[in-house]
Specification:
CATH class of the largest domain: Alpha Beta
CATH topology of the largest domain: Rossmann fold
Helix content: 40-55%
Number of domains: 2
Radius of gyration: 21 Å
Strand order of the largest sheet: 2-1-3-4-5
Structural class: alpha/beta
Low-confidence stretches: none
Order of helices and strands: HHHEHEEHEHEHHHEHEEHEHH
Oligomer: single chain
Number of strands: 9
CATH architecture of the largest domain: 3-Layer(aba) Sandwich
Shape: globular
């Protein structure tokens, strides 16, 4: 019997209950909706925004990436994600800088916040507390206060949903509240297919985890709604599954990375797997590229799996694949017999860096 059909073994591998964090994503979105709706924001403080920069790292930054992808079709100003100690040079008093740190103590994010204050940028903040909350209160920065106790990657609803609502409050996005509510309802239904009680034979997330197990997945997606989703899959497979993964985006990778798919992969073909995140609204040109690339890679005897989004509204389609990917990463951790919650390598890096700067 597959370990993925043994709930007792699954729970032994997951003592800190990452499963519930993934299962509760729709409920977290609903709570984040309340937080975002209650966020006190004065529209007049944000008139004349010329560009938007979301500052964050890791699990906090991915909310900004998803916002950028989702809002691309509505926003009339450019959006950048800053994963750095310093802001892009163009940031000034006509820039909106949204600072997101789940802990409130992320080193890179706090330095970028200081930079934004010096440049007199328009500011907003999202955090559970820490230094970021103190700085926000001191400088009268509109703050969305999140509940604590989660790994940042398990707080995606909190880092993403308030961002959308903030942009709706300052009239840069429209109709997002309804789309969020509809998505919550659909994701609640979709997860029934991925729950731990559902056996491998009937569970898409478990099946995909078994296909990935023992291999390095390479995730490809279209360039519009799903570039950030592919990044989320990669991050979750690495952090939850403790399994190396890579991602790239059509059509750009067809102009460079594709050339690496030659007979040179022959010694590794059994250790590689390609996942293509596909969507009903991919451009016809992107669909054609995906089909041809699949043929090229399969000719090298490397398996390619197409994974399709669900639903009609764009937010639902995006989040349907986010949800599936999170469950896949969880079941991959089980197959790898590793606790999905700790991020030991990251903690070691932080400790060693702290010693060097002390």
């Amino acid at each position: 019997m597959s370990i993925l059909n043994d709930i007792e073994q699954i729970r032994q591998i997951d003592p800190q209950n990452m499963y519930n964090r993934i299962f509760d994503f729709p409920e977290q979105m609903a709570d984040a909706l309340k937080i975002g709706m209650a966020w006190k924001v004065d529209y007049e403080d944000f008139i004349g925004v010329k560009n938007i920069v979301v500052v964050g790292m890791g699990g906090s930054a991915i909310g900004g990436e998803l916002m950028r992808s989702f809002a691309r079709s509505q926003l009339i100003v450019p959006v950048d994600i800053c994963r750095n100690y310093v802001l892009p040079e163009y940031v000034d008093d006509e820039s909106l800088v949204i600072v997101s740190s789940y802990s409130g103590n992320t080193e890179e994010t706090l330095m970028a916040l200081d930079d934004a204050i010096r440049r007199k940028a328009m500011l907003a903040a999202i955090t559970t507390g820490g230094i970021l909350e103190d700085v926000a209160n001191l400088n009268q920065i509109p703050l969305a206060k999140l509940p604590g106790g989660l790994q940042p990657r398990a707080a995606l609803g909190y880092s993403f949903i308030p961002l959308l609502l903030f942009l709706e409050k300052i009239r840069l996005l429209r109709n997002v509240e309804k789309e969020i509510r509809d998505s919550i309802s659909k994701l609640t239904a979709y997860r029934d297919g991925y729950i731990e009680d559902n056996p491998v034979e009937q569970n898409q997330a478990k099946k995909l985890a078994e296909r990935i197990h023992g291999r390095i997945p390479i995730i490809y997606s279209g360039p519009s709604l799903f570039d950030a989703v592919a990044l989320r899959w990669k991050g979750q497979i690495c952090e939850n599954g403790k399994n190396l993964a890579f991602c790239n985006v059509y059509p750009e990778f067809n102009h460079n990375e594709l050339v690496g798919w030659t007979d040179t992969v022959a010694p590794y073909r059994d250790k590689l797997l390609v996942l293509q995140l596909r969507d009903a609204e991919d451009l016809p040109q992107i669909r054609s590229r995906m089909n041809v690339v699949k043929e090229i890679i399969e000719r090298l005897e490397v398996e390619v799996i197409d994974v399709h989004s669900k639903g009609i509204p764009s937010l639902e389609r995006m989040l349907s694949l986010v949800q599936l990917g999170d469950f896949v990463s969880y079941y991959l951790a089980v197959l790898n017999r590793v606790d999905p919650t700790p991020v030991t390598a990251i903690e070691e890096l932080k400790q060693r860096l702290a010693k060097r700067t002390a």
